[in-house]
Amino acid sequence: MSAHSHPKILIVDDEPAIRRAVRTNLVGHGYAVEEAENGRAAVEMLLSSNVDLILLDLGLPDAEGLEVIREIRTYAQTPIVVLSVRDAERDKVAALDGGADDYLTKPFGANELLARIRVALRHAGRGPDSLGVVLTAGDLSLDVDKRRVTRAGREIHMTPTEYELLNVFMSHPGKVLTDRMLLRAVWGPSYGAEAHYLHVYVARLRKKIERDGQQARYVKTEPGVGYRFMADEP
Amino acid sequence: MRRLAGYVSALVAVGIVTGAIGLASTQVHLANASMLYLIAVSALGIFFGKGPAVVASMAAFLAFDFFFIQPIHTLTVTDPEEWIALLVLLFTAVATGQLAAAQRQRAREAEAREREAIVLYDVGRTLSESDLDQALPAVSRRLRRELNLDAVAIEVHGASGGRIERAEVGAPYAVEATRHVATQPAMVLGTNPEERGTALGVPGHWFRAVPSSTPRSERRHPRRLHVVPIHSRDRQIGRLILVRVPGATTFARSEDRMLLAVTNQIGQAVERSALRREAMEADVLQRADSLKTALLNAVSHDLRTPLASIIASASSLRQHDVTWSEDERDAFAEAIEQEATRLNRIVGSLLDLSRIQGGSLHPQRDWYDLGSLIDDVVGRLGPGLGRCTVTTDVPSDLPPVFVDSTEIDQVLSNLLENATKHTPCGTEVRVAARTHDDEIEVEVTDAGPGIPPDALGQLFDPFYTLSATGGQPRGIGLGLAIAKGLVEAHAGRIWAENRTEGGARFVFTLPARTATSVQGEP
């Protein structure tokens, strides 16, 4: 992304109308845009050109979107935002676990699209997790060195698991995290299917960090997929 | 066999009585010794029927004449008085024998009719109480026990959509024989004479049926395989196949009658079952039809309304003969966005409904904290529910629920949207959950006008709508139908009622299961 001032985005979708609408919008917001109408063309395009982010439709005519993601991930870490229809939560989770960075449910609004692109580009630009930092979000702050969490300056007591969970969330602001990703990051690589631990711990964590239980401000549920930590004011 | 035994017994009995009279007459003079024969004759009438009794009467007449009437040891009679005595003996004996035999016949018939009535009652009850696939084996078992048969099989077709229904009971080799009935010589009970094209013998009489494919050497009289055709609406629709035990005598008349009545009942049961199926199919078709009509109405009206706004706004934006102000352009764009979003929601609902009705729901269940699920929905809908204050009341010790989170999320969203749509601004909508017996009960209550009593029964029907309050757009009537489908897919129940203090209360339940592994740090 640092190589050029206008990040280049590759749109992979077989619907010309979608490509046109997205292209018009992205160009209007200062992005460079490439298009591909199927998985094969997308892979060729990636090899021949510098792309900063891929918008990938999961319902491509020539290949399973998941296979395209896996193939891309064998040689490139380019952020991938998948586009998919409602009721395909299983596909979305598989795509995210397979290496995609985020997802958008069709039909989507322009603001949502731009927000997802910004988050994905920001994550791509960041280096590996830095040590000795203090992560902040709103009035929350988490001191990685001291393993201390405060809200509005007052310390919140947390169990080790709750702390790890919050640490993972705050290290990936704005990014969707599937149940499986969170389980592996917090409980270890041998976990992945025990989603009920996670749901219970997220509920406990929310009780401690959210001001108003009714309006989850920090930890948002992505129905059927996982959670997303919101660092900025919604 | 039994017949022959009867006649032999008649002669033996007459011999014994003759001997007894001979012995007695050497001691005392017997004036009416011939009366002793009457005892034997009536006993024979009772035990062996008319024939042996008559034979015994004749034998008694001859024996008495031969042994005891002068001149002895000849059949001639000299004294005319003796003639009268002999003739009286003959007539009395014949009459007594006849009476005794008739009595016996009546008793036997009464017995047979009682047995027939009991069997028919049992068969009739079995056929009317259970489905054919269970009733036919039961009827076969009953007949086998009643008639002491080696095997019984019932074959009918046309009962369940062209399929042949077959029930068979009995010894394996005999059951095997029933399967080859079409190619074996068999005795067939004549039934319906009006049968078109096929001669089925004299009704109520057995006749021999030998398939033309049977080799001449095997065309002997079939003794064991018996077939009774089953009819329904003047058409043969099956057969009752009976395999007799080796050495059995022919069926009694009462048994023939019983078999005819049983096949008649089976035929009627098959007809009833066919009618029932037709009625059910017609009902399903009619329901599907009315759903289709409702769907067409929805598509034509509810989908076109947002499309009309979108097309109007978009084409306005493209008009070059007017100059739109910034605000006007914004208003058009906003209309397009709003209406397209609405359209998207309608399409989503239609898809959900078709998935629910097509039975293709596959809940992806896991353990969730119901409080968080409720908070998520309220938080997400928050901006859309601006007209109402939403409060939640979920006890913190509520056990986790085993559900598909997206589906329960949708149930809650639909109920909340429904509540806010039908209540005036500024009132409170309350979401509460609690454990109730072995269920978790979730309720959404509002303080609106409540539900019109005549609408209560149809609220959860697809495409049923009530007008919303405050000039809000009327929905297309799928929200509650979808909520119902999703709750039922979770083995729960959903219902609506009016609160006594005013407003409506929508409740759904989820089965509570105890989570064992959720507690503690994993």
List the helices and strands and how they pair.
The complex is a heterodimer of chains A (234) and B (522).
Chain A: E1 8-12, H1 16-28, E2 32-36, H2 39-48, E3 53-57, H3 65-73, E4 80-85, H4 89-97, E5 102-106, H5 110-125, E6 134-137, E7 140-143, E8 148-151, E9 154-156, H6 160-171, E10 176-178, H7 179-187, H8 195-209, E11 219-222, E12 226-229
Parallel strand pairs in A: 1-2, 1-3, 3-4, 4-5
Antiparallel strand pairs in A: 6-7, 7-8, 8-9, 10-12, 11-12
Helix pairs in contact in A: 2-3, 6-7, 6-8
Chain B: H1 2-27, H2 35-48, H3 50-68, H4 80-129, H5 132-147, E1 149-160, E2 163-170, H6 172-179, E3 186-189, E4 206-209, E5 225-232, E6 235-244, H7 253-317, H8 326-357, E7 366-368, H9 370-381, E8 389-393, E9 401-403, H10 405-421, E10 428-436, E11 439-446, H11 479-489, E12 494-498, E13 504-511
Parallel strand pairs in B: 3-5, 8-10
Antiparallel strand pairs in B: 1-2, 1-6, 3-4, 5-6, 7-9, 10-11, 11-13, 12-13
Helix pairs in contact in B: 1-2, 1-3, 2-3, 2-4, 3-4, 4-5, 4-7, 7-8, 8-11, 9-10, 10-11
How would you explain this protein's 3D organization?
The complex is a heterodimer of chains A (234) and B (522). With 234 residues, chain A is of the alpha/beta class. Chain A has eight helices and twelve strands. In chain A, the strands form three sheets. Chain A has a five-stranded parallel beta sheet, with helices on both faces. In chain A, β8 and β9 form a beta hairpin. In chain A, α6 crosses α8. Chain A starts with 7 loop residues before the first strand and ends in a 5-residue tail after the last strand. Chain B folds into four domains: 2-109, no CATH class; 114-274, GAF domain (Beta-Lactamase), CATH 3.30.450; 287-357, Helix Hairpins; 366-511, Heat Shock Protein 90, CATH 3.30.565. Chain B has eleven helices and 13 strands. With 522 residues, chain B is of the alpha+beta class. Residues 515-522 of chain B have low confidence and may be disordered. Chains A and B meet through α8 of A and α8, β7, α9 and α10 of B.
